[in-house]
Each structure stands twice: as structure tokens, then as C-alpha cells.
């Protein structure tokens, strides 16, 4: 892509590299964006975008930014280890903490997703309505569909905000569950 300054005094032509353009698109995107959409905007193939994203990811590993993957889409975020400084800078230190019940429900949804309220209640042994409402209002979980069985219970899954809040680039980075039966 070429940028031209057409002022009468002089003409300056600057050509930005594809990786610079990709990084710029990720920076201005309001949320996760698919590699196909990035490829269309850059007028390159999705495979080229995937290669450029791998380059960015390797470079960001040494810096304060990260690529966060969610459902096949990617978003530019700050590094988890910079979280405290970013919160102080933005005046977010007084963010609310999650209750024990909300943490339990969030863990169940994160590992089982999609999960229904009856499944969550059965695992916890208590009603989880309040914790689910709290997590929904905080944007950590969302409704992802309905189960095709009598009553059509709501299916819940985690959001990109969940990944960002816990410093994860993707759900695959969550710690494995311990098998208590061993």
C-alpha cells in the first residue's frame, strides 16, 4: 500500500510493509477480527495473514502486547504481566472481585463450555442463578445458544473479555484439569 502526500511543495511516497499494515488494523479493530477479514482488507491471502500473525506473535513475546485468539478471530491486547500497571494508568484498580460462587461457575463454564445452568447446578450442588447473572453482567460469559432438548436450556460460554481478564491468549492455554481418580 502506498501513501502519497500531494501537497504542492513536494510529493512524498511511503510504502508500508504488510506486517505494519496488519498491526495497524489490529490496533484499530474494536474486537476480535477473523484472518479472512484482515486478508480482504490487506488484499492478500489468508495464509499470508496467518504467517504475518505468527511473526507478530513471536515479536510480541518480548514486548508489552499480545495476540489473543477467540473462536478463530484475533485481537491485539496488552500483556497479562502489564495488567497491574495498565489498571493503575486507567484508574481501574478498584475493579470488583469475583465471589467464590462466581469463580466456581466461571471455572465450570470455561472447562465444559458450552454448559447449561442445570449442568452447573448439578456440579456445584446449589443454585447458580446469581453467579451466572453476575458473570453475564461483567461480560465474562455469554449465551452461546440453546440445547435442543425439552425446556431448551441456555448454553453458556466464555467471552474474549474472560481471556483478557485472565491473561490468556486462547482457551487452550488454561491449565489442565487434575484427574482426582488417579
Characterise the protein shown here.
By secondary structure, the protein is an alpha+beta fold. It folds into two domains: about 5-80, Arc Repressor Mutant, subunit A; about 100-175, Orthogonal Bundle (Arc Repressor Mutant, subunit A). It has eight helices and seven strands; from the N terminus they run E-E-H-H-H-E-E-H-H-E-H-H-E-E-H. The termini are far apart.
Write the SSE topology.
Layout: E1 2-5, E2 12-15, H1 18-28, H2 35-42, H3 46-60, E3 65-70, E4 73-78, H4 83-90, H5 100-112, E5 115-116, H6 117-124, H7 129-137, E6 141-146, E7 154-158, H8 160-165
Antiparallel strand pairs: 1-2, 3-4, 5-7, 6-7
Number of helices, counting only DSSP H or I runs of 4 residues or more:
8
Looking at the structure, what is the overall shape?
globular
Order of helix and strand elements from N to C terminus: EEHHHEEHHEHHEEH
User: Would you identify the CATH architecture of the largest domain?
Assistant: Orthogonal Bundle
Radius of gyration, CA atoms, in whole angstroms = 21 Å
Give the total of domains.
2
User: Which fold does the CATH topology of the largest domain refer to?
Assistant: Arc Repressor Mutant, subunit A
Major beta sheet, specifics?
3 strands, antiparallel
The CATH superfamily label of the largest domain reads Winged helix-like DNA-binding domain superfamily/Winged helix DNA-binding domain
Overall SS class: alpha+beta
Look at the structure and give the CATH class of the largest domain. Mainly Alpha
Strand order in the sheet with the most strands: 5-7-6
Q: Tell me roughly what share of residues is in helical segments.
A: 40-55%
Unreliable spans are none
Mean pLDDT: 86
Give me the count of strands. Answer: 7
Strand percentage: 15-25%
Measured distance between first and last alpha carbons:
58 Å
Amino acid at each position: 500500500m502506498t501513501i502519497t502526500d500531494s501537497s504542492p511543495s513536494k510529493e512524498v511516497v511511503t510504502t508500508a510493509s504488510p506486517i505494519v499494515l496488519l498491526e495497524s488494523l489490529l490496533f484499530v479493530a474494536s474486537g476480535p477480527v477473523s484472518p479472512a477479514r484482515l486478508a480482504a482488507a490487506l488484499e492478500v491471502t489468508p495464509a499470508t495473514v496467518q504467517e504475518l500473525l505468527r511473526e507478530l506473535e513471536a515479536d510480541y513475546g518480548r514486548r508489552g502486547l499480545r495476540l489473543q485468539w477467540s473462536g478463530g478471530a484475533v485481537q491485539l491486547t496488552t500483556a497479562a504481566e502489564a495488567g497491574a500497571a495498565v489498571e493503575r494508568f486507567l484508574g481501574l484498580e478498584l475493579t470488583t472481585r469475583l465471589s467464590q460462587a462466581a469463580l466456581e461457575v466461571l471455572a465450570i463454564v470455561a472447562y465444559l463450555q458450552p454448559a447449561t445452568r442445570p449442568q452447573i447446578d448439578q456440579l456445584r450442588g446449589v443454585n447458580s442463578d446469581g453467579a451466572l447473572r453476575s458473570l453475564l453482567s461483567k461480560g465474562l460469559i455469554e449465551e452461546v445458544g440453546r440445547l435442543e432438548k425439552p425446556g431448551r436450556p441456555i448454553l453458556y460460554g466464555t467471552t474474549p473479555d474472560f481471556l483478557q481478564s485472565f491473561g490468556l491468549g486462547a482457551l487452550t492455554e488454561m491449565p489442565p484439569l487434575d484427574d482426582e481418580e488417579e
